[in-house]
Amino acid sequence: MGARLARVFRTFNLESRARREISKEKPTPAPRHSTSRVGELADNPEIEKEILRKDDRLLTLLKEVYVASTDPPARVKDGGDKHLPCKQEEKRLTKLGHLGDLDVTKVPKGKISIVEALTLLNNHKLHPQIWTAEKIAAEYSLELKEVNSLLEFFIPFTVKEFPKETRKAI
């Protein structure tokens, strides 16, 4: 709809606008610089002879010049320590979940996989006396402060099934 309306305004009175632009007087171009005129060089034969003449003195000096260049020896850049790890990260085997090949098998110490996070949250929710923050920190190689924050701010979903009688009432 908008394209049709725009086309109407674009083509409105097009011919008269085009004629008006064509009939306008053309602006005069700016004058050219005197050295940019090629015709003056062709008219003057002395300038052409000077351009084409070889200077023997300069040619002999040019033949005497000899340049020998050698590349400096290649050096290994310093500061490569930034990109290389200074020590190998310690990894631990994960408690495998039910996804088989999709599960992550090795995780750096101090981190957990998603399956492990859901498992430990669910275990803590079901048995908070057994799965305390200290036991979770020791089991998964985590810091106690991080485990406390995890247990405080992340709560797994619960699925509740309503009996058929109460479903009708809802």
Automatic annotation (TrEMBL):
| Highest taxon of source | Eukaryota
Task: Report the InterPro entries cross-referenced here.
Answer: NDUFAF4 (IPR009622)
- A single BP term in Gene Ontology: mitochondrial respiratory chain complex I assembly
Cellular component annotations (GO), alphabetically ordered? mitochondrion
Q: Which Pfam families match?
A: UPF0240
Annotated spans, Disordered: 19-42
Q: How does it assemble?
A: Binds calmodulin. Interacts with NDUFAF3.
- Cited PANTHER family: NADH DEHYDROGENASE [UBIQUINONE] 1 ALPHA SUBCOMPLEX ASSEMBLY FACTOR 4, UPF0240 PROTEIN
Family per record: Belongs to the NDUFAF4 family.
Put simply, this protein is called NADH dehydrogenase [ubiquinone] 1 alpha subcomplex assembly factor 4
Please give the organism.
Pterocles burchelli
Q: What is the lineage of its organism?
A: Eukaryota, Metazoa, Chordata, Craniata, Vertebrata
